[in-house]
């Protein structure tokens, strides 16, 4: 559309130049062609402005989409890191529980209630420390 407007403006400008040579600067034909040329130049400029505005809007939309994509990738990476930390925490807690059960079994039936409670308290303290270090 813009290229068509440019060709029309160029053709009118050439036609105006020939009319000036044939009819003189002050003829009515020249005045009409000058008016038509100005109108076409305005239309051409409006199209150019519209194209420029559309291009800028598209660039802004692309930039916004890239920003959203970047933020999504960052969030996905953070989620992956958190899942890894959660798995490590679960693994550490499972090991602690296994150690506790082993120690409890080692104490056996002969252990006093105090020894069993001390073992349980130690185990809970270790679980707390592991959880605190991972969070």
Automatic annotation (TrEMBL):
Residues 48-83 are annotated as: Disordered. Residues 48-58 have a biased composition (Polar residues). It comes from the Bacteria. Residues 59-71 have a biased composition (Basic and acidic residues). This is Uncharacterized protein. It comes from Bacillus cereus. The lineage of its organism: Bacteria, Bacillati, Bacillota, Bacilli, Bacillales.
């Amino acid at each position: 559309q813009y290229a068509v407007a440019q060709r029309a403006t160029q053709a009118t400008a050439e036609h105006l130049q020939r009319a000036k040579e044939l009819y003189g600067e002050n003829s009515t034909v020249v005045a009409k062609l000058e008016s038509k040329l100005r109108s076409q130049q305005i239309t051409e400029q409006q199209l150019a402005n519209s194209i420029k505005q559309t291009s800028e809007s598209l660039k802004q939309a692309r930039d916004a989409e890239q920003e959203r994509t970047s933020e999504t990738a960052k969030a996905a990476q953070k989620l992956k890191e958190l899942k890894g930390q959660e798995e490590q925490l679960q693994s550490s807690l499972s090991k602690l529980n296994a150690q506790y059960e082993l120690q409890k079994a080692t104490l056996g039936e002969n252990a006093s209630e105090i020894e069993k409670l001390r073992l349980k308290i130690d185990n809970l303290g270790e679980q707390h420390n592991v959880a605190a270090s991972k969070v």
